[in-house]
Amino acid sequence: MITCKDGGKKLTTDWLSACLLGLGKLFLHPLLYVSIAYCLFIGYLRVKRERRDFNTKIYRKSMELRALFPQGVIWGLILSFLTLASGIVIPLAALIIVAAVTMIAVLTMNRRFVSPVYTMGVTFFILFFLYDRDIQLPIFQDAFNQLNQSVYPTLVILIGFLLIAEGFLIVSNGSKKISPQLEVSKRGQPIGVYVSQLIWLIPMFVMIPGGELPAPFEWYPVFSIGEVYLSPIVVPFLIGFKQKVHGTLPEQAIRAHGKKVGALGFVITAFAVISNWYPLLAIITAVLALLGREFLHYSQKVSDAKLPFYFSKSKLGVQILGVIPQSPADKMGLVKGEIISKINGIVVREEEELYRALQINRAHCKLEVIGNNEQIRFVQRALFDGEHYELGILFVDDQLKESGQAG
Fold first, then answer.
1. How far apart, in whole angstroms, are the C-alpha atoms of residue 177 and residue 171?
2. What is the chain's alpha carbon radius of gyration, rounded to the nearest angstrom?
3. Does the pTM exceed 0.90?
4. In angstroms, rounded to a whole number, what is the distance separating the alpha carbons of residues 318 and 284?
5. Shortest CA distance to 225 belongs to which of 133, 129, 154, 126?
6. Distances (CA, A) of 49 to 19, 36, 173, 309, 398
7. Local structure of residue 400 (DSSP, 8 states)
8. Using CA atoms, how far apart are residues 258 and 156, in angstroms rounded to an integer?
9. What's the pLDDT tens digit per position in 267-313?
10. Contact 8, 165 (CB under 8 A)
């Protein structure tokens, strides 16, 4: 006869073993490897575009891949705690569909559609269509037979959680290491723009119904009906982000957009929790999540389009579109948006004038710079043998109508 104490130890051991097994299943999930390949492909396209515009590579091809995991893992731990503590159980059928929908979103090559509000939202309505219908799916039929109406509030709660994570990721990482690109305006004016295109992978513990483990608490699960035997599993959720900015500094616009996405996530989560008692509200909440995310995207796009071009030719001097990392300009503290008005005491208005002034004294470089706060400051630095004479500054110039030039 097993005592209560021995039974508790066995239950704890079983759950720890199941969690480790569930963590191992992450490495069997195709989305893990698809996301890695996707980031490498995005990096390849970015470097190709940078070389076309500026005749140089700005960031490594692996930049997007290096951004895929660190912040995503942190948010995976946070959301795992929230989902497990709140008693959310997600049917295996929902996880299968969301993986398939995410794969399709990746194939569109539009990072914006990899946002969880689209992948989870589409999954929600697919399950709504499949529920209580006599549709035969030979391979996954058992998984779909476990569906019940409790899946709807569960999915919209997950949409809310992932939207909150998306908002915070956009604020903290959306504007880091984004490279500029060159365009020609409708009036034929060369301009510079910034496009943030990132993918984050959130590995998250979720509970699926079935298995051999009993519910750890009498009240568990809260957001699922009927199943009391559960299995923990780690599932990768992808968050894609794309935002184009030309009317202001990208850091300002992207962070402001991220705060709005996070606020939308909190609103959706609140409605989703209430929908556990009012199932019809879950459908309304899913629609609001999709419409709300679309509204935020297009309102940002429209407001940015109304602004004058931030990166274009300036009468005050030569504006910096971007700075190549670890270059002399980067070490001098120059940043995007600033305007170089003088070099070594010589007024410059064109890129060619800047380089001619720079060649007068190759050993030392003193710049008069108009900062983004419209205040004038002076920066200077000795130039050493072997350093590129062009400092590592990227400009917008008339020549860019045909081809890019790197400073």
1. 13
2. 26
3. no
4. 52
5. 154
6. 43, 20, 22, 21, 19
7. G
8. 20
9. 999 999 998 888 889 999 999 999 999 999 999 999 999 999 999 88
10. no
